[in-house]
Amino acid sequence: MALTSWEQTAAAKRQSVLNAIPEKWRIKGPIPAPTEQRDVTGPYIQQFLSPREVEITETDAVGITERTTTGQWTAVEVTEAFCHRAALAHQLVNCLHEIFFDAALETARILDDHYTKTGKPLGPLHGLPVSLKDQFHVKGVETTMGYVGWINTFQGKTNDPRYLTHESELVKELRAAGAVLYCKTSVPMTLMSGETMNNIITYTHNPKNRLLSSGGSSGGEGALIALRGSPAGFGTDIGGSIRVPASFNGLYGIRPSVGRMPYEGAANSGDGQNTVLSVVGPLSPSARGLILLFKTVLGAMPWLGDPGVLEIPWREEIVEETRKLVQGKPEGLAFGIFYDDGQVKPQPPVERAMRIAAETIKRLGHKLIKWEPPSHLTAASLANRAYNMDGGADVLQNFALSNEAIHTSVVIDASGSPQKTALEIAALNVEKREYQKQYLDYWNSTAQVTGTGRPVDAVICPVAPHAACIPGKYATIGYTAFINVLDYTSAVVPVTSADRRVDVVGKEGREYFGELDRKTEGEYDADVFDGAPAGIQLFGRRLQEEKILVLAEYLGEEFRKASA
Amino acid sequence: MALTSWEQTAAAKRQSVLNAIPEKWRIKGPIPAPTEQRDVTGPYIQQFLSPREVEITETDAVGITERTTTGQWTAVEVTEAFCHRAALAHQLVNCLHEIFFDAALETARILDDHYTKTGKPLGPLHGLPVSLKDQFHVKGVETTMGYVGWINTFQGKTNDPRYLTHESELVKELRAAGAVLYCKTSVPMTLMSGETMNNIITYTHNPKNRLLSSGGSSGGEGALIALRGSPAGFGTDIGGSIRVPASFNGLYGIRPSVGRMPYEGAANSGDGQNTVLSVVGPLSPSARGLILLFKTVLGAMPWLGDPGVLEIPWREEIVEETRKLVQGKPEGLAFGIFYDDGQVKPQPPVERAMRIAAETIKRLGHKLIKWEPPSHLTAASLANRAYNMDGGADVLQNFALSNEAIHTSVVIDASGSPQKTALEIAALNVEKREYQKQYLDYWNSTAQVTGTGRPVDAVICPVAPHAACIPGKYATIGYTAFINVLDYTSAVVPVTSADRRVDVVGKEGREYFGELDRKTEGEYDADVFDGAPAGIQLFGRRLQEEKILVLAEYLGEEFRKASA
Q1: Half-sphere exposure (Cβ direction) of A148: Cα atoms closer than 13 Å
Q2: How many C-beta atoms lie closer than 10 Å to residue B367's C-beta?
């Protein structure tokens, strides 16, 4: 059967991305089927790389910049190694939308020249390759955001002078800090999905277990970084889109509060929906990698380039205070915890990750209290009404540009329902604020039960009911979207991986919360999920990024030791 | 003719406010007509007060707390003096919606007891009477916000348990700091007006010239503080509602950026409209009074009680930096300035205030550059579309509660136009963000011309085309609403007063920007306006409150010397 017009356009774009991979970096011969070779990280991808390339690409962002800012490694060598590995990653799991290795190498050469001439790095990210979700505009590079109708346009607009010329604020700031930009990563169409699929790159699989999803919507970032095709990158999160891929890929990621990281000049879905906002945040294999990126962007004073960014610099005093609490001074830390959201019980690997987290915290001598906040169901309802307030008009406009087919994993209502009116939206905003107030009051009230004299320092909970997920089976945003409604700070901390031997559904019957709970348990298969990473969420109040990052670093290290 | 039902309800409420004034504080005999006695401040109101009451009430907030926090003045004596003076003020210009002197004196007694027992003040505002715009809820006191339909209800809801029991966050924080709450001040129906009028208290006149308006919508605050019936109070501002009354009454006032002062638990108009937000801010006869209130509220960590407040404490380091710039270190200050908005030229008193400001700044050796930003017309259009996005549905619902008559000075569209849809609102939000970005870029670009190596430190401009205004003749929000669209920090600094001898319209013809410009000039009458205060606006970027407050204090003192 002949391809339709949009299928041809999508196929051509798909091919052009592959064509951008130099011949020398193409995988010769067939790639084994996922059933034969699930895990393509570690030894599998290393077979295509030199020992030196493996050494470079398996060093974390902090380790790399320690070397590139002191002349031990050149930007060109580091860039080439990551370009090579990113090229392999894309061939293995379809994680890239844009490849611009030539421009990256040119940047790297300029950075090396700068270092040779001045003896100094250009900035704190000198020579560090940084990957970007395909919402950020980079000069000379397209942004399709997974829409076939955006190919050859600026966000769907033909003959727009910004096409291939516009650059997002974050991109400018990363360049000024010495970062090397070299690729943009895959997203699901509409960005509203816990998986990553579109008609251009098809589906982004989980590198640790290619039977499963890499998560979404920053799924390309998650997959690429898991394969060490990038040491760190930036995604966005409106309902879990940084945290889900971080967790599914065994990475750290942070969803900061609105106004800390610059979104200015980036493409988005439902742009102008002002009730529950998407935010930018980093993903990385190390917590200190997140800190490096976060601190560097704030060092660029992004509030001078983005009117939406708050003038809150990196607060080292909060870092110091938190480190003291970590050391048990004066009275240690207190964490809230909840194991399920009362709707869908997590599958066994996530349940075990939560148990490891809880036991570790107790063993370290910190307080752990049961978290019983205002219902997260209310938050999920608020989030869904916010996402769908235009009745799908925005995404339908973008689909109509090419008439492409809509994937079923899209969680936004694309049926063209009636739009909300101004009064309805105002009522939604008031309802959201009231929920936020109730939650804040609950948070404060825990000072009565923590024993530290303070409310909880942070709360621990699952990221999703599943460790990764079977394509098409993403269950619920109930564990993540409440954070976006509250505008709280939430980091993902890796804990363990699914293990077919121990992560089995209990033999005895249990009470189910409802149909979705039963269905989600039924979809679990210890054999299929084997190897899928499972992380946990660690969240704090609004604008608590410094504290949560320090706690993520601390707990992440302890979890690693506990599950080793 | 018999009164209609809503007229009776309004009259009864009006009388109940007057009834709350103790007999001993009622003005005996007739109050002269405004044509006979325009100015009721200073000697006029002093005739009803004892010398000691005059001494207390004409001390500013900082002077008062210096004495009340050290036991020199008791809270009871200070409170009684202000209650007395506020009672007089209301009888002269209709500036109060609620009077609760008994509760205030009870609070004052408790504060005095506390001081006697502990030898310490309760907090930094110990014993300071603070007035509140009638949007804030105080236990035991109604909030009508100028709606007849809100009488005997909680925000129009009958049998709501919050009626007479609910307290706004700001109110709680003020109490905890030791403030004494004793009255709530008048607002225009809908809050959307540059004057203050409603069917309950009728019209709030300008105490310096009762032929004119006290401004709006925080017009009761402006009038009360001008009469020294309050040393400091809180208003709100969505298009100029703190700045206009501050300027019309010769006061300092600040419209901070969204998220610094707590709005939680206060009544509002068009609540949930999220595009251009109303904010809370203080008014006071002294800049240091504003600083005291602002700093005290931040000291209460309002972000723990209001999810909309940002965790940005009072930044003393910015105060220090700004003071150094004031002293010419390293290279002094640079100000932008514009004398008119290209739509309506200010009337002569405002023109002269602007000249005094400009000459003072130049004389002090600071840089002054012509401010040529992205058009403020765009901002005014954005603001109007935001205010009217529900087609007046919110205010019409509130009018319908009593069927009361709508005053013509209401600037919101109350015609029941079609509401905007979600997509239209999203487009408006995007347009606003783009405007904010253009403005920020322009601001940054002035670093090229200031000669200080930095962009301008602040910008000077009129607050309105008129010094106060003739009732029903408020011309335009073009000088104020752009600040709300940008979410910038803007303070009003008093400069001078209209003088019939010098403030005359030039004899020679001039070019007019348009019909409104011609009309506004035509409405000016040097004799009628004589005595009306004229201030200027001093604005900085978003979240620059500390800097702008320090500059307001500095320039205010210099303007005072210059116009003395």
Answers
A1: 26
A2: 19
Q: For residues B346 and A22, give the distance between their C-alpha atoms in angstroms, rounded to a whole number.
A: 67
Q: How many CB atoms lie within 10 A of CB A165?
A: 11
B98: its two tokens? 């609620």
**Two tokens at A352?**
């075990």
Decide if B272 touches A, using CB distance below 8 A: yes
Residue B324 pLDDT class (50, 70, 90 cuts): very high
A310 in contact with B, Cβ within 8 Å: yes
Please say if B286 is a catalytic residue. Answer: no
Distance from the Cα of A238 to chain B's closest Cα (Å) equals 16
Among B259, B390, B433, the residue with its CB nearest the CB of A308 is B433
Please indicate whether the domains covering A8-27+45-304 and A318-502+512-563 agree at the CATH topology level. Answer: yes
Q: Is B133 a catalytic residue?
A: yes
Task: Give dist(CA B284, CA B272) in Å, integer.
Answer: 29
* CB-closest option in B271, B423, B428 to A390: B423
Q: pLDDT tens across A445-472, in order?
A: 999 999 999 999 999 999 999 999 999 9
Q: How far is B444 from chain A (nearest CA, A)?
A: 8
- Chain A hits for B310, Cβ within 8 Å: 259, 310, 312, 543
What residue segments make up the domains of chain A, in order of their start?
Answer: 8-27+45-304, 318-502+512-563
A130: helix, coil or strand? strand
pLDDT exceeds cutoff 90 at B372: yes
Chain A residue at shortest CA distance from B264: A437
Exposed/middle/buried for residue A168 (C-beta within 10 Å: 0-12, 13-18, 19+)? buried
Range B8-27+45-304 classified under CATH 3.90.1300.10? yes
What confidence score (pLDDT) does residue A509 get? 75
Higher pLDDT, A564 or A23: A23
Flag if B436 and A304 touch (Cβ within 8 Å): no
Q: Which of B217, B278, B286, B497 is catalytic?
A: B217
Does residue B252 sit in helix, strand or coil? Answer: strand
Average pLDDT over residues B460-473: 96
Query: What angle separates helix B422-445 from helix B376-387, to the nearest 10 degrees?
Result: 150
pLDDT for the residue numbered B563: 81
- Say how many CA atoms lie within 13 Å of A247 toward its Cβ: 35
Asked if B429 has any chain A CB less than 8 Å from its own CB, the reply is yes
The reply to whether residue B273 touches residue A312, judged by beta carbons under 8 angstroms, is no
List CB contacts of A15: < 8 A, sequence separation 6 or more: none
DSSP string across B322-336: HHHHHTT-SS--EEE
Distance of CA A143 to CAs A20, A91, A268, A412, A528, Å? Answer: 16, 20, 11, 21, 34
State the angle between helix axes of A422-445 and B393-400 in degrees (0 to 180), rounded to the nearest 10: 80
Residues of B whose CB is below 8 A from A275: 274
Contact between residue A158 and residue A235 where contact means Cβ atoms under 8 Å apart: no
**B272 vs A contacts (CB less than 8 Å):** 425-430, 433
| Structural contact between residues B537 and B551, judged by C-beta atoms closer than 8 angstroms | no
Span A5-36, pLDDT tens digits: 999 999 999 999 999 999 999 999 999 999 99
pLDDT score at A507: 67
Q: What is the pTM of this model?
A: 0.97
pLDDT score recorded for residue B4: 85
The correct answer on CATH 3.90.1300.10 for the domain covering A318-502+512-563 is yes
Q: Which among B131, B213, B214, B241 is annotated as catalytic?
A: B241
Check pLDDT > 70 for residue B1: no
Q: Is residue A28 packed enough to be buried (19+ CB in 10 Å), middle (13-18) or exposed (0-12)?
A: exposed
B445: helix, strand or coil:
helix
SS3 B459: strand
